[in-house]
Structure formats: structure tokens, C-alpha cells
Amino acid sequence: MSDKCTIKTSIGGQALIEGIMMRGPKVSAMAVRRPDGSICLEKSELKPLPRASKIPVLRGVVSFVSSLAVGYRSLMRSAEIAMPDELKEGGDPAEEDIPSEEPADAAETVAEVAENTADAAETEVTGAGTPSDEENADETAQTAARPDEEKNAPAGAENKSEKSYGKVPGMTAIMIVSVVLALGLSIVLFKVIPESVYQLLCRIFPGIDGDGWGYSLLRSAITGIMKIMILIGYMAAVSLMKDIRRTFMYHGAEHKTIFCYEKGEELTVENVRIQKRFHPRCGTSFLILSVLVSIFFTMFIPAKLVDNGALNVIARTGVSLLLLPLIMGFGYELIRLAGRHDNLFTRIISAPGVWLQHITTKEPDDGMIECAIAAVREVIPDDGSDRIG
User: Fold this and answer.
1) Beta partners for residue 42, in sequence order
2) How far is the C-alpha of 113 from the C-alpha of 90, rounded, in Å?
3) pLDDT digit string (tens) for 49-61?
4) Does the pLDDT value for residue 101 go beyond 60?
């Protein structure tokens, strides 16, 4: 089978706790494996994004915030479904029952939920989800009436009716705390630690401490390398956890399913299974591209803003945080370009993210692929508004 895609789609997704969320131009859908082996399928209409989502660079920030909100809500809801005994808040929203022949083990502890949410904040998704292109986001977010899709359902699946999932009761506080902790961890890991280590190196090797653009370039390059090392080390460390590894397997199922759809193949477990699991629009690619872009922008921050070492670390961290929206915006434009075109340049900018996906995606089992297929079918629009390029 050829690796050439017949279409390019804006549909993307995110791995959840024992499930997958897919996001189309008008709706999002999540398919989560219950402890009894059945699949819970829930669907929600997306609100249109503001006009700023059309402005280059700025649309990256808007898309990030929107994707983070949808992703966190889905992640918390998936925890309620997959771990009803460990995490249960309020009543259940309307949902669909999809029996499956292939049960999967549920995630076991709330600690893994926190780990996943921290990961999602850093990668826009953990892990690692594929960010959606929001070119058609200003259209009215209404779901077109769709015919019954029983003929397309995975083996053993029963799609009874379309439902919507709403705000998860009692989870707002957990979401806020998780976001704050995740952002705090990200600032410490990728801002404070690299700058502090470099400041320590300046005391050991006074020759690298000075003013001028050359010193700024050197500091940006060395701190950038440290950020990449921290990112790779962090991803490799969390991948050793049993439940995070399962999440990375669902991440692989998400990518494989998107590739199958882009190639115009029928969405079956057999067709999805043989696809590759590394996608250029992955949230992992977005993360590492943002780190690389940050190296360029921090070159223009003076190496020594103040003479005091500790205050210099704080000052440079503050300035780099102010540049974060710009860095995210340019990172988004690069990954958007890679998703639309396939040439030497886009393959080069996609390469770091694809390499990192060897850690953040794993080969899924058939039950995980079933979840991905169930979710993506719900978000494919009848009018082809997901097509890009």
C-alpha cells in the first residue's frame, strides 16, 4: 500500500484515559473504553472561534487555547468513564453504548490523570495529539444531519443515536489546579532550569559570560539544547509508566486512523493497523518545533539583562514568557505548513517531531483502533469542510 495520501484533513485528535478524542471542523467526539470492555461514545458541537483565528501567527495562540480547553474537558470526562470507582463526580451526561469484542484494562489511579493533564499542557495535547487546522472555524458550529452509519461501524459495534456531552460536573477545580501545576512545571523545566544552569556555567567558565549578540547567541543555543534534552528525557521517563504507555498506544491509534482516512481507505481495523504511527501534524511536533523556534527568538534577548546572576535568570525567564505567544504562533505556522505540503523543507521541519514520536506513540492493539475509528467517524463532515491544502 502506498504511503501517498489522497487528501489532507484538518481533523485531529488527542489520546485520553483509555480512549481517543477526535476534533473536526464542526464537532468533537470521544470514544472511551469502559472497564467492562464496551465503548462509550460522546459527541459535542464546537463553538466557532473568533476572527483572530484567521490572522497568521495569532491564530496559533487561539487554536492552542481552544484545543487545550476541549482536550482537558475530554481528558477529565474520559477519566470518569474509564475509572468510575476512582473518580466519580455528579451525574452522567447522555452517552452511547457500543459493545466491543475486545475489552481493555482501565487506567488504575488518579495520579495517572494528573500526569496526562500535565503532559497535555506541554504538548497541547499529550501527548501528543494532532492539532486541528481551524481555517473553517468561523462557520456556524452546527452538525449536519447524517445517515445511520451502522454499515461503517467496527465489528460488534452498535451506534444507537447521536448525543452531546456537556460540562463535566465537579471537575472545574481539578482542571484549574491541573493547568496551573502543568504550566508551573513547564516554566521550571523549560525556562528556570536551563537559565539557572547556564548562569552556573558562567561562574565556572567566565569566558562565556558577557554582553553582545555573540554571547546572546551562545546562551540561546546552549539553553535551547538543554530544553530539548529535558523534553526528551521527560517523555522517555513518563513512557515507562504503565498507564502513560497505554495512552501513547492510543496516540498511535489516533495517528494510524487519520492516515487511513487521508489515504481514502475504508476505516476498518485491518486497514488502520498497517498504517504508520508518525504524523507531521502531531502535537509532539508542535512542541519540539516551538522549542526550536524559541532558540531563534531568545537570541535577541541580551545575555546579561542585569548584573546579578539570580535576577538575570528571573529577568530572562520573564522576557521569554512574554515572547511565548509569538513563539507558539510561529511554531503553529510551521506545523500547519508541514500538514499542508510534502516537500524537502516540510520534511526537514517535521523530522524532529517524527523522531520524538518514536517515544510518544506506541503500536496500538485492535481495541484501541476500534476507539479511534468510532471517534473519527463522528467528526467527518458530509460537506468536505475538513479538506485542506
Assistant:
1) 30
2) 18
3) 777 778 888 888 8
4) no
